[in-house]
Amino acid sequence: LPRFESYGLFFLGYLERHTNRLAQNTKAALINSIMKQARKWIGTWWPRPAPPSATGSSASSTQKAGWIE
């Protein structure tokens, strides 16, 4: 298995490639570009968790009863 650091280097390389495509005139524009690309990359590689089930049972009601369904 590859080491964890290689994923960090891959991520930094991805950010650098995508932020260098366009010239940013200000520091704020550069930060916004980095944040946009980071959100895009994270959304691609880590999908959002599934929404909670709508069965009507909540964690607080099961905790009050002292048992878990």
In short:
This protein is mostly helical. It has helices at 4-19, 27-45, 59-65. It starts with a helix and ends with a helix.
Descriptive key words:
mainly alpha, 69 residues, 3 helices
What does this protein structure show overall?
The chain is mainly α and 69 residues long. It has a domain at 1-47. The chain is built from three helices and no strands. It has helices at 4-19, 27-45, 59-65. The chain is flat, with a radius of gyration of 20 Å. The mean pLDDT is 73.
By oligomeric state, this entry counts as single chain
Structural class: mainly alpha
Count of alpha and pi helical runs: 3
| Overall spatial form | flat
Mean pLDDT: 73
Please outline the helices and strands.
Blueprint: H1 4-19, H2 27-45, H3 59-65
Helix pairs in contact: 1-2
